[in-house]
Design goal:
The complex is a heterodimer of chains A (864) and B (464). With 864 residues, chain A is of the alpha/beta class. Chain A has six domains: 173 residues, Rossmann fold, CATH 3.40.50; 257 residues, Purple Acid Phosphatase, chain A, domain 2; 72 residues, no CATH class; 110 residues, Dna Ligase, domain 1, CATH 3.30.1490.70; 111 residues, 2-Layer Sandwich (D-amino Acid Aminotransferase, Chain A, domain 1); 62 residues. Chain A is 40% helix and 20% strand. In chain A, the strands form ten sheets. In chain A, strands 8-14-15-18-20-19 form a six-stranded mixed β-sheet. In chain A, α11 crosses α13, α19 crosses α23 and α21 runs antiparallel to α22. Chain B is α/β, with parallel strands linked by helices and 464 residues long. Chain B has two domains: 225 residues, 2-Layer Sandwich (c-terminal autoproteolytic domain of nucleoporin nup98), CATH 3.30.1610; 202 residues, Rossmann fold (3-Layer(aba) Sandwich), CATH 3.40.50.150. Chain B contains 17 helices and 15 strands. In chain B, the strands form two sheets. Chain B has a seven-stranded antiparallel β-sheet. In chain B, α7 packs across α9. The chains are: A alpha/beta (864), B alpha/beta (464). Chains A and B meet through β23, α16, α21, α22 and α25 of A and β3, β4, β5, α10 and β11 of B. β23 of chain A pairs parallel with β11 of chain B.
């Protein structure tokens, strides 16, 4: 019947819509009218794609394979799909129903049951439909057969959850499609929520918990709730398993039903509700696991209450997606790929979870630990499995703390993420297996135990990481492969690897005579990027070291999950342990720990762990091999080779003018070889023990609750100067100078400072924006730019680099790649720390650190 | 780099005729890697010295034409200062006629043995002075060698591998030049800077007449050919820290050393045999070779049709490439392609691809892991991958004393992080077996020695 304004056809906004109707019934017209072109998958289109002819009947099989594939991809991405094909036979619909089930989309049938005469007429009018009238006749017959049967016809019985039948072209034209969100989809509801774990009839504890949460509970008689008033705006969420085992199931049900009806609570069903409902419906179920208690208590209630309970239970939705998709609640939890979808499998998972098929020593099914593999974005709050404590694991938390077994009743406040609980007054029910489970609880949290093993799938292959500072950063597959090898063969325990430092670009190449680098270029870079003030820091002549330091074993365990793995680590810039000698490392860390104690740094930062960025001297402590095998060997060969050349030329020069010219040239080269040797020697002194080491920290990267990227460098240098004063035998403060790059005089002072440093044989300086993180017109600005001294560069570019014919060529060097890597690595390094400070799972920290290492395998000029 | 050739044959200045270079002039030549100059520091009838001075362009080596492949792109290199294949290239260019033994003015002298002295200011001597002497003394030269410290300020850094060397002999000039032409790069034994591929052929031509009879001809030719196709893998080299040269190269050298040590007792083969026996006994049809290296065990597994699925896994990308190449996986077709595969992976990360196999071989792998990563390894293998049978081998440290050439206390391989006694291995294996629900039995691999056991120990773990 055509109503005024047309019929309203309700469909879920995420569904697989199957159009059903004979050829010529107007399906494509209907689809074009009511759906977006990209939503409609027509068999004719796919015949055309695979066989160049929309009418090619012999291409039907491959065309449908392709159509099913594309439909599957749309559903996988949680997008609606409309299948425009005749679909009049059950065999044709079956694969579509399977597809909907596979991706947990609701199947919808829209039937165009148009009189056969009209279909035949239309086909005659179309030149591409040259099949005989028997074809349509058979299709109409098949359609009739499909519609036969009880309400909704055979289509409902086949599995279509919505069936809309349109009897005329006019009805199809006038109809209006209304897309409804799934019942599970309550993303618009931001709460705030108080989520309560498995109650099992523990009414008194529920009441006590509600009062702790500042809900006001009125009772009409003891144990009989009349009304509950939540604190302003808050909403209660029941995670299911309200019934069975406990002393006052009726009271709990009454309270929950009342609040759900009043709109002050949401409730998802548990497996116990599912079983109770079947019992109330008269199904034959085994009276076990505390169902007897429920039935006995409900017997004492009026029949009307029991009917209301059945109705309430029947209306419960498997799970809810809340708060913009940030929170998902389900009784047994729900995997990421099932969230916000609907199917029998989704419901089963939400009620029972998954089992491995094995049974444990108590005869109970072994549950598949989906939470340990969870990688979804939404926090999943669930119950079902009684545990002694509610603990976060990979963004999921189980709130069943076994109240009915004598444990406690737990609530989670969202979005505050606060946990509150009320102890059980007594053991109400003896569990099938001991609760809490036998054996002393280990020293680590569930998350820390899970973090002991990282998954290859979380690091390997091409990866896209989201960082706060620089958005999405892509890691190339071959770089990840190189990093895997370095990480597996050489790196320290991943629990200590919470940061890796970024690479650092030099300043633009200077045009000054005899120089490759000069502070003027560094100052100009920052000025052009809108940074007015910079800090010049003396570049220490050592190796980069990251110190991860816990104040105590307790802090190491609690914050790093380190048991018998020491109280910290001293790492190289590629994540290796700096020292092969564990005792030396421990001695160094102890000294820094003691200095932090003496300087009051722990108290000042209110922390019991620290991450410091530093330079460890001498360079020969780590690079002795390189110095001996390469630098010294080259120096010895150069001095010997050039020495004899000079001597020979000296003998020839008096008689041959060309030899005299060569003599000058080789004397200059011999002189540069000597200066080269002097340059590397400044980095060398013998290290017999800790007394020969120097540590120059320059960043306080992170401490409890804070990544100190929000402080300027003077804060960092100040805090570390205090630290250095506490142990001047080991620690060096970093000399520095603030320069206003918009003031020529200040810039000139900066240049003089650099000339003085490098004139004394110093390595040079690092110029940083005064703020740790600076942004300019083109986004993130280099966090640091180095400006190396003339003599130091001799050990980078070779002894003869500053000969006029060489330096002219060396000036041609491209910094772009290096700079873009420096920014990506900086953003990743800070991201790693921020994730660590927020207490995210280790894999989330590790993927950032891993990405820094992967970036470092990019081929860039190693001399930059 | 400077080479000086001196003669005292009277009149000494005839050297100029032999070399086709006028003693009163400086002559210069352009070469692909810089310039060469010839001049005479001394030219008297009694004594005449010709100098060949190379002025190698250090920047050009890295950036310009004549850039050598596989040089590691280093500016800090000894190449401009030492005698190397550059010297050979320069001699061929500058002293071509002398090398060929022709002299227009003094043809008789060119064919005569005369007293000659060659001085090389900086000659790299791989293998040290003994190798230097083994190469030149059979050719009739007397040598004096000036050893130098790497750095006189740091005596503990040892002696420089580059020495000043003087050769003295009564030989034809052409022979002296040919000897230097061939043997300088052999002593250098470094990456060669071949300007063109045919330089190799030229080199061998220069050996005509004396190389075949040289007692060290094998060393000479082997060193020549070894470096011609050196694979350069810089990606990993960039990731390891200062002071560690190319880790792949190191690993290869160490593996060679270990192989040499063990091959004397035929251990490699016996190990493959023992593992194969354990896997066959378990009736495994799908097998993992974890830490497959370059694929020695994989090749043995492939020969046995009972193994229907064979997967090798290694953390070294280079090893994976070599294994794939040796197994010709790129040429496998049809079912063969599925049957044998080599994957890049790590044994310290959980890897779902490793689940569901009947058996796993872990041959000489665990000793390459840091002790603190063994916990992760055990869980990855026994808890996650969970194969039905695991055949795991590791060196038996007690046997090390019986290896000739292995100093006491040293491990067999430079990358071994530990080596276990039988008691240590068995304690670890039993604990792991008990924890993860396996039983374990132990078998010796190789000839057992009283009190020391076999060189390799194997644990066979069976699930359930």
């Amino acid at each position: 019947m055509v109503e005024a304004g047309g019929r309203v056809l309700e469909i879920p906004d995420f569904s697989l819509v199957v159009l059903v109707g004979p050829s010529g019934s107007g399906k494509s017209t209907f689809a074009a009218r009511h759906f977006r072109p990209s939503e409609v998958l027509s068999s004719d289109t796919f015949r055309g794609l695979v066989a160049d002819d929309a009418g090619a009947q012999d291409a039907t099989v491959p065309a449908f394979e392709a159509l099913h594939f594309v439909a599957g991809k749309r559903l996988e991405g949680r997008r609606l799909a409309v299948v425009d094909a005749t679909n009049v036979q059950e065999e044709a619909r079956k694969p579509l129903l399977d597809l909907a089930r596979r991706w947990h989309a609701l199947p919808v049938a829209i039937v165009l049951d148009i009189p056969e005469r009209l279909c035949q007429e239309r086909n005659r009018a179309r030149p591409d439909r040259d099949f005989g009238p028997h074809v349509v006749r058979n299709q109409v017959r098949d359609l009739r057969r499909s519609l036969r049967g009880r309400r909704g016809g055979g289509l409902s019985e086949e599995g279509f959850r919505y069936v809309h039948v349109l009897r005329s072209p006019e009805e199809g034209e006038a109809a209006r499609i209304v897309r409804e969100p799934l019942w599970t989809d309550r993303r618009g509801d931001a709460g705030p929520f108080d989520v309560v774990g498995d109650i099992h009839g523990c009414y008194d504890e529920l009441r006590a918990l509600l009062e702790t949460l500042r809900y006001e509970v009125e009772e009409s008689a003891p144990g009989v709730p009349a009304s509950v008033a939540p604190p302003a705006g808050r909403k209660l969420v029941f995670l299911g398993d309200l019934v069975d085992r406990g002393p006052n199931v009726s009271g709990v049900l009454r309270l929950a039903m009342g609040m759900v009806e009043a709109g002050t609570a949401l409730c998802v069903p548990g497996n116990h509700e599912a079983k109770l409902l079947r019992k109330l419906r008269g199904k034959d179920v085994r009276i076990t696991h505390g169902l007897a208690e429920t039935l006995a208590q409900l017997e004492r209630e009026p029949a009307e209450f029991r009917a209301k309970v059945a109705q309430f239970l029947d209306g419960l939705v498997s799970h809810y997606v809340l708060d913009g998709g940030r929170l998902v609640v389900a009784h047994a939890g729900v995997k990421a790929e099932l969230q916000g979808r609907a199917s029998g499998e989704v419901r089963e998972f939400c009620l029972y979870g998954e089992t491995t098929g094995e049974t444990d020593e108590f005869g109970l099914p072994v549950r598949y630990d989906w939470a340990s593999d969870y990688r979804g974005r939404a926090a999943v709050v669930y119950g079902h499995t009684p545990l002694p404590e509610a603990e976060w694991l990979n963004g999921t938390i189980c709130l069943d703390t076994g109240c009915v077994f004598g444990g406690k009743l737990t609530a989670l406040r969202w979005p505050e993420r606060e946990l509150l609980s009320v102890p059980a007054a007594r053991v109400y029910y003896e569990p099938a297996k001991p609760f809490p489970a036998a054996g002393a609880p280990g020293p680590l949290t569930a998350q820390q135990r899970a973090d002991e093993l990282l998954d290859l799938a979380d690091v390997l292959g091409k990866r896209h990481l989201t960082t706060r500072l620089r958005g999405t950063i892509t890691v190339r597959e071959e770089n990840a492969a190189a990093a895997l090898e370095a990480m597996s063969r050489f790196a320290a325990d991943p629990r200590w690897l919470v940061h890796l430092p970024p690479t650092m670009s030099p300043c633009e190449t200077s045009g000054e005579e005899g120089l490759l680098e000069h502070p003027a270029e560094a100052f100009a870079y920052f000025r052009q990027n809108g940074v007015p003030r910079v800090v010049c820091e003396e570049k220490h002549m050592g190796s980069r070291a990251v110190l991860v330091l816990a104040r105590s074993e307790e802090a190491a365990r609690r914050r790093f999950g380190a048991v018998e793995a020491g109280r910290g680590a001293c790492l190289t810039r590629t994540g290796r342990r700096f020292f092969e000698d564990a005792a030396l490392e421990e001695a160094l860390l102890d000294r820094v720990r003691a200095a932090a104690e003496a300087a009051g740094l722990w108290e000042r930062l209110r922390t019991d762990w620290l991450v410091l960025d530093a330079e460890l001297l001498p360079w020969s402590a780590k690079a002795r091999n390189l110095l001996v095998r390469q630098y010294a060997a080259v120096g010895a060969a150069a001095r010997a080779g050039l020495g004899e050349a000079v001597a020979a030329l000296d003998r020839a020069a008096p008689s041959q003018p060309e030899a005299a010219l060569l003599l000058d040239r080789f004397r200059a080269r011999a002189d540069r070889a000597v200066r080269y040797v002097e340059a590397y020697r400044r980095y060398c002194w013998p290290v017999r023990g800790i007394e020969d080491l120097k540590l120059a920290p320059f960043h306080v990267l992170a401490s409890e609750g804070a990544v100190h990227a929000d402080k300027d460098h003077l804060w960092h240098l100040g805090a570390l100067a205090d630290l250095a004063r506490a142990d001047s035998g080991l620690l060096l403060a970093t000399g520095h100078l603030v320069v206003d790059v918009t003031d020529p005089e200040s810039a000139a002072a900066g240049v003089r400072w650099w000339e003085e440093l490098t004139g004394r044989g110093g390595e040079g300086m690092v110029v940083k924006p005064l703020d740790f993180v600076a942004r300019g017109p083109r986004g993130l600005v280099q966090p640091a730019v180095k400006c190396r001294g003339k003599e130091y560069l001799r050990i980078i570019y070779g002894p003869d680099y500053d000969a006029p014919e060489n330096i002219a060529r060396l000036r041609k060097r491209g910094l772009a790649r290096k700079r873009s890597l420096a920014l990506a690595e900086f953003a990743l390094g800070i991201e790693a720390l921020e994730r660590f400070v927020r207490g995210e799972p280790l894999r989330r920290v590790h993927e950032c650190v891993f990405a820094v290492l992967a970036m470092e395998s990019e081929p860039v000029d190693p001399r930059l | 780099m400077i080479l000086q050739i001196t003669t005292t044959h009277l009149p000494a200045t005839d050297l100029g005729y032999l070399l086709h270079k006028n003693p009163s002039k400086v002559q210069s030549f352009e070469l692909p890697f810089g310039r060469a100059h010839v001049f005479y520091p001394e030219a008297t009838p009694e004594r005449c010295t010709a100098a060949l001075l190379l002025d190698v362009d250090p920047v050009g080596l890295v950036r310009g034409r004549g850039r050598a492949p596989g040089t590691g792109e280093e500016y800090v290199t000894d190449r401009p200062y030492v005698a190397s294949s550059f010297l050979s290239v320069a001699m061929a260019r500058v002293f071509g006629s002398a090398l060929a033994g022709t002299s227009r003015e003094r043809p008789d002298l060119a064919g005569a043995a005369i007293p000659l002295e060659a001085r090389l200011a900086a000659l790299p001597c791989r293998g040290g002075e003994p190798v230097l002497r083994r190469l030149f003394e059979p050719l009739g030269y007397g040598l004096s060698v000036d050893a130098r410290e790497r750095d006189e300020k740091f005596p503990d850094w040892g002696t420089s591998p580059v020495a000043g060397v003087t050769l003295r002999g009564t030989v034809r000039l052409r022979d002296l030049l040919a000897h230097l032409y061939v043997l300088v790069p052999v002593l250098d034994d470094e990456k060669h800077y071949w300007v063109a591929e045919d330089e190799v052929a030229k080199l061998l031509r220069r050996g005509a007449g004396w190389l075949a009879a040289h007692p060290e001809r094998e060393l000479i030719t082997e060193r020549y050919l070894k470096h011609r196709r050196r694979l350069v893998r810089l990606a990993l080299a960039r990731l390891v820290d200062e002071g560690v040269p190319d880790p792949d190269e190191e690993a290869e050298a160490r593996s060679r050393a270990e192989e040499a040590l063990e091959e004397r007792v035929g251990l490699g083969e016996q190990r493959v045999g023992a593992v194969l026996a354990a896997l066959r006994e378990a009736r495994a049809r799908s097998v993992l070779d974890l830490g497959c290296g370059e694929g020695r065990l994989l090749r043995a597994l492939r020969e046995d049709r009972r193994f229907e699925r064979i997967v090798g896994v290694d953390v070294s990308w280079r090893a994976v490439e070599v294994a794939r190449e040796r197994l010709h996986l790129d040429r496998a077709r049809g079912p063969q392609r599925e049957r044998v595969q080599v994957w890049h992976g790590s044994l310290t990360y959980r890897d779902r691809r490793l689940e569901g196999f009947d058996a796993a071989a872990v041959v000489e792998v665990i000793e390459h892991l840091e002790p603190h990563r063994l916990e992760a390894f055990a869980r990855v293998l026994f808890e996650c991958a969970r194969p039905g049978t695991v055949a795991l081998t590791t060196p038996n440290r007690e046997y090390n004393a019986l290896f000739l050439g292995l100093p006491p206390g040293r491990l067999r391989h430079g990358d071994h992080r530990f080596e276990w006694t039988r008691a240590e291995f068995e304690a670890w294996a039993r604990a792991a077996a008990a924890r993860f629900g396996y039983s374990v039995r132990f078998l010796p691999v190789g000839q057992e020695a009283p009190g020391a056991g076999a060189p390799t120990q194997m644990g066979v773990f069976v699930r359930g």
